[in-house]
Amino acid sequence: MSMADILTIGEILTEFVAEKIGQSFEQTGVFAGPYPSGAPAIFIDQAAKTGSSARIVSKIGPDGFGTLNLERLRRDGVDVSRITTVPDKTTGIAFVTYLEDGGRSFIFTTKDSASAAIGREDVTEDLFAEARYFHIAGCSIFSSEMIEVFRKAIGLALQHGVNISFDPNIRREVMDSGDIRDFVRYVVESCTIFLPGEDELQWITGIADERRAAEVVLGHRAEYIIVKRGSRGSRVYGRDGVRDVAPFPVTEIDPTGAGDCFAGTLVSLLNQGRTLDEALRYASAAGAYCVTRRGPMEGTATLPELEAFMNSRAGHDGTC
């Protein structure tokens, strides 16, 4: 098996998005799709498109939704050799509506989908032997078996000196249980790069003051905590101090996937030896670029596409 520098494990989904803001699940409405999706799938697609060798461990059903995702990931350069088909399960599905206040509401079939068949036997040592980064999307920690999958994976990553990046990607629809919350805290204590949103950092640490919460996390293994603030950019906490990353102003069409594109670009460029500041600037651009496209994986971008995007917004270049 060929080796990949960047590895992730987790769900592959097909997504349907509401066509109108304010549309609810309680009323009949039009949804657009199907779109390839799933936080780990978007992350790994972006990592591959920006030039790193990248692999995902996942499962799909023997259906068109699975084929849609598999072919998109393969086209964009992801190693799909560890995506397997579960004969009696369907590929996961997500439905998304957009609220008037900018929030989103989700319905997931993840727990009953092919992705729920990911097991400890799928996590093998050879995946980590030459990997450099292992990325965890918190929304993939959706069951007791997935907790054990990630416990095994984290152990192998630590054993082999693999950097762990963690985007909590909280989906309370599938994560709101005490066992999952406790395990999320364990992942935070194990990761090298932590990528929470503002509310997520408080939810996980139980500390309202952001700087203090970041200091607590830095007391474990984390080298950097990058707090994502959407249209307000991001703030980076490290042992060498605090810095802000400016946003790229855009007109938002669909925010889903922006954080995954940010993380995929950041990890990919760090993997390629870019400086943290350079990786952050590209990551900020990737998050902004993503929200200008409808569909969560439609906004992934290559480095030349990101460079053209940044050049078109001279003066708003995400400089730290």
In a nutshell, what does this entry contain?
The chain is 36% helix and 21% strand. The chain has helices spanning 39-49, 64-75, 126-129, 144-159, 172-175, 178-190, 198-205, 210-218, 258-271, 276-290, 303-311; strands at 6-9, 13-18, 31-37, 54-60, 83-85, 92-98, 104-108, 133-137, 163-167, 193-194, 224-228, 234-238, 241-245. The strands form 2 sheets. It has a 9-stranded mixed β-sheet with strand order 5-4-1-8-9-10-11-12-13, with helices on both faces.
Walkthrough of the structure:
With 320 residues, the chain is α/β, with parallel strands linked by helices. The chain has a single domain (41-84, 120-301), classed as UDP-N-acetylmuramoyl-L-alanine:D-glutamate ligase. It has helices spanning 39-49, 64-75, 126-129, 144-159, 172-175, 178-190, 198-205, 210-218, 258-271, 276-290, 303-311, and strands spanning 6-9, 13-18, 31-37, 54-60, 83-85, 92-98, 104-108, 133-137, 163-167, 193-194, 224-228, 234-238, 241-245. The protein is globular.
Could you tell me the CATH topology label: UDP-N-acetylmuramoyl-L-alanine:D-glutamate ligase
Structural class: alpha/beta
Q: How are the strands ordered across the major sheet? A: 5-4-1-8-9-10-11-12-13
C-alpha end-to-end distance: 39 Å
Number of helices: 11
Q: Care to count the β-strands?
A: 13
Taken from the alpha-carbon principal axes, the silhouette is globular
